[in-house]
Amino acid sequence: MSKNPFTIIFGIEPDSMIPRNNEYMQIIQDFESASPISFGYVITGVRGCGKTVLMTSIQNYFANKKDWIVLRLNPDLDLYESAISQISEHINLKGETITEMSFSVAGMGGGLSKKSLSDNETLLRKLLNEAKNKKKKVLITIDEASNTTSIKTFSHSYQAFIGERLPVFLLMTALPENFSALSNAKNSTFIRRLPRIKLQGLNNILVEDKYMEIFSLSQEEALSLSRIIMGYPYAFQLLGMLLWDSKKKAVDDGILKNLDAMLYDGSYKAIWDHLTEKERNVVLAIAHSNDFTIKEIREELHMESNQFSPYRENLRENGLIDTSTYGKIFFTLPRFREFVLKIEQYII
Ligand SMILES: Nc1ncnc2c1ncn2[C@@H]1O[C@H](COP(=O)(O)OP(=O)(O)O)[C@@H](O)[C@H]1O
Ligand SMILES: [Mg+2]
After folding, report:
1. Distances (CA, A) of 232 to 2, 16, 138, 163
2. Distances in Å between the alpha carbon of 28 and those of 201, 223, 233, 243, 260?
3. Going by CA atoms, what residue is nearest to atom 23 of ligand 1?
C-alpha cells in the first residue's frame, strides 16, 4: 500500500475505518422501517470517539437514496434558514420562490425576531409537506449539538412536524455533558426522550485485524498495538499514522512520546479543560491509585460513598471511566493515566 490510510483530522471518514455495524444498522433500519421506533437519534460519546464519522456515513447512505433528502445543519448558523435553503435545492413550492430576500424581509434586516422564526417555521412546514407529496423523506443532521436556544427552538418545531406526520428524521451528535445540559433544560422533554446511541470503543479484534492487514503484522504484533489504543478511534488513527510515517512495526519510546503529545493536543487537554475542579481531583485520585479500587480512591479523596457516587456517575456518563468491574474504576481512554500524571506536574 502506498497511500497513508490514516487520518488524524476530526470528522473525516478515514480510509482505515473500523465498521460500527451495530449502531449504523440500528439507525438506518429504523429510519427505513415502515413504522420507525424513533424518528430521531442522538449519538453521544467522548471527544474523538467517532460520532461525526458515524453520522457522516449514515448521512452519505441516505444522500445516495433517491427518495431521501439530507439536510446538514450547522448549529452555529440559523437552523431554519439553513434547512429552508438546503431543502429548496430539491423541492420547489408552486408560485413561491425562496430567495435571500424572503429571509431578510422576514427577519426585518437580519435580527431574529419572533415573527421571522414563525414565518420560517411555516415555510419549512410547507416545504416538508411538498416533500411528503413527492414521497420524499427528509433527514436533518446536526453535528455537535449543545444547550442553545436555537437548538431548543428548532427541536420544538421538529416535534410538531413529527406530530403532523411529516416525513422528517433527526440525527444529532453531542458530547455527553452538552447533551445532558440540553436535555435537562426546561421544556426539553422531547429531546430527553430521544434514543441515545452511546459510542463505546472500537471492536478490539477488528482493530487488530486492520493493523495486521495494513502493516503486514503477526497476530501478536497487532495485538500489542491494539492494546495500546484500547479501542479509542482517535488513538487508532494517531498510532497508525506514527507507525506509517516512521516505517516501524512496533512501538518504541519515541513513538509513545509522540502519541502522548498528539493525544494531549488533539483531545485530552480539551477533555481536561472541561472538567470541574472537583472532577479533576477525582480523576487525579484514580490516576494515583495502585489497584484502582473505589475504596482506595475514596480514601485518598476523603469522600464518603454517597459524596463520591455522583462524580463517578458523571465521569462514567462522559465516557472517561469504566465501572463495569465491581468495586473498581478504570480509565477508558488509552494513555489517559499518563496524561493525568503529566498534567498534574503543571498544576501549582
Ligand atoms: N470507525 C472508525 N474507525 C477508525 N477511525 C475512526 C472511526 N471513527 C472515527 N475515527 C477517527 O477518530 C477520529 C475522531 O473521529 P470523529 O468522528 O471526529 O470524533 P468525534 O466526532 O466523536 O469527536 C478521527 O481521526 C477519525 O478518523
Ligand atoms: Mg465531531
Report:
1. 25, 14, 32, 39
2. 21, 32, 22, 35, 36
3. 48
The protein residue whose alpha carbon is closest to atom 17 in ligand 1 is: 50
User: What pLDDT digit, counting tens, does each position of 140-196 carry?
Assistant: 999 999 999 999 999 999 999 999 999 999 999 999 999 999 999 888 888 999 999
163-174 pLDDT, tens digit per residue, is 999 999 999 999
Ligand nearest to the CA of 234: 1
C-alpha cell at 340: 493525568
User: CB within 8 A of 33, min separation 6: which ones?
Assistant: none
CATH, domain 275-344, list 2.40.128.100, 3.40.630.30, 3.40.630.100, 1.10.10.10: 1.10.10.10
Answer whether 250's CB lies under 8 Å from 224's CB.
Answer: yes
| Distance (Å, whole) CA 286 – CA 321 | 10
Residue in the structure block whose three cell numbers are 415555510: 123
- State how far the Cα of 214 lies from the Cα of 236, in Å rounded to an integer: 12
Is 236 a pocket residue for ligand 1 (Cβ < 6 Å)?
Answer: yes
Alpha-carbon span 146 to 172, nearest angstrom: 10
Pocket flag, ligand 1, residue 120 (CB < 6 Å): no
CA 316 to ligand 1 center in whole angstroms: 20
Give domain limits for the chain.
21-198, 204-272, 275-344
Could you tell me the pTM of the whole model? 0.93
Arch. (CATH architecture) of 21-198: 3-Layer(aba) Sandwich (3.40)
CA distance 29 to 142: 20
